[in-house]
Write the structure tokens for this entry.
Amino acid sequence: MANGFYKITQSLHCQLTDKGIRVITMGDALKVDLAKQTIFPYAHIVPEGAVKSGKITSWDFRIIIMDVVDFNKNDLRDESEPFFTTDNLQDVLNDLHNRISNVLEAYTRGDEWDLYYRIVGDVSFDSFTERYKNLLAGWEVTITIN
């Protein structure tokens, strides 16, 4: 299939858009301008490689999904329950985990499954909270799609 890469990346883009991701980019993650506050929630797709076995091509992608963590002006020492901190970090991680999980569901039993796109193997989620300068948090997943 000569246009397989186009189709699978378009599929990922559509699924992320359908889950409310505002901006989706692809390529080198280091070239993205994360300083704009209007682009979140944001996803970046990094093509990792492909393996061809007979008529099936397995595409490897790393998907990074992130949002801005907001802080309130309360002092953590004044909080009755410090576990919940003075930010919305838990909300951001929960929301983004749900969004990316819903994207992956499309490849395990949803619309993309019906189009014969399949996620191969288990998917692990790696959270991050301090990777970027402007208080971003989110998840990084690596998937293989046949």
The first helix runs from residue 4 to 18. The chain has one domain: 4-145. The first strand starts at residue 23 and ends at 26. The domain at 4-145 is CATH 3.30.2000 (STM4215-like).
